[in-house]
Give the backbone structure.
Amino acid sequence: MKALSLPDGIAVIAAHGVHGPAIAALHKLCFDEAWSIFTVRQVLAMPGAFGLLAVEEGVVGTGGLGGGDLLGFALGRSAAGECELLSLAVTTGERGRGIGGALLAAAIDRARRDQVSRLFLEVAEDNAVALRLYRNFSFRPVGRRPRYYRRPQGVALAALTYSLSLED
């Protein structure tokens, strides 16, 4: 895995419950089954959970994102020697700038600090951009859940499970 750098003026910071509304709003824009503010805050409050935010540098105040926009997020949870990347999203206008890769690299670093041996994630089979990102980070397919995701038009798609060994 090669080192990734963020575009100038963007930083990755830790997420907290106060960021729940911004994360939920971006989640709603990026996924058919949106998480509520309550759900995001529950996730962040779970033992071993972590959140990472991609934000414009200099706009983060003590109470949240200040006047700046949330550009992307990653949510994960470490437990019993494993970590699961629960959700990762980048706002449409910022895609293709390396933010998703930087968030994924930061999540991998966090999982390593948590001393887990394996990182798992799940992705819809039609999400070509995410699949390319995960493969570029050496994630390997380990499972498939048929008809797991439902699109608004009623189409059912498989969820693909990927894994990355963190043991060197």
